[in-house]
Amino acid sequence: MAEPGPKPVLYVAACALLDADGRILIARRPEGKPMAGLWEFPGGKQETGETIQQCVVRELKEELGINTEIGDFLITVKHAYSHFTMEMHTYFARIKSGRPRPLHCQDYQWLKISELRRVPYSRADLYIIDELEKR
């Protein structure tokens, strides 16, 4: 039996989107997608030719209809799933214009860092919460 090849690496951008009160926006994964119904920090797959920061801006426009400004780097999470490995680069961000709307997610909510663990996440997103709680 042949040995399986290396798992593909998926490069992903995510953000801790802050509001004026220091709350963070989380989004609920849409039905029909892997891990549907779990909550996540918004973002998505990096496309060819774009930086991670550009990816965050594009994904938040597509998912939530908002224009954002990327801030400081937060954490890189490397996590192995059964069929691929994900490398998720996470930044702080703020809304420049627009109001969030659930365009490509089931729902969203604003939570204080101390409230983030109230809802279920994938393992990779829990590393982001760990980092936020340290700061």
Determine the structural class based on helices, strands and strand pairing.
alpha+beta
Please estimate the helix content: 10-25%
Shape annotation: globular
Largest sheet: 7 strands, mixed
Distance linking N and C termini: 48 Å
Low-pLDDT segments, ≥5 res: none
By DSSP (H or I, 4+ residues per run), the number of helices equals 2
Radius of gyration: 15 Å
Rounded mean pLDDT is 94
Number of strands: 7
Range of strand content: 35-45%
H/E element string? Answer: EEEEHEEEH
Concise description?
The protein is 19% helix and 39% strand.
Protein model, in words:
Strands 1, 2, 3, 4, 5, 6 and 7 form a seven-stranded mixed β-sheet that branches. The chain starts with 8 loop residues before the first strand and ends with a helix. It is α+β, with helices and mostly antiparallel strands. A hairpin with a 4-residue loop joins strand 5 and strand 6. It contains two helices and seven strands; from the N terminus they run E-E-E-E-H-E-E-E-H. It is 19% helix and 39% strand.
Note the topology.
Elements: E1 9-18, E2 24-28, E3 39-40, E4 43-45, H1 52-64, E5 67-80, E6 85-97, E7 107-111, H2 123-134
Can you tag this structure with a few keywords?
135 residues; alpha+beta; 7-stranded mixed sheet; 2 helices; 7 strands; 19% helix; 39% strand
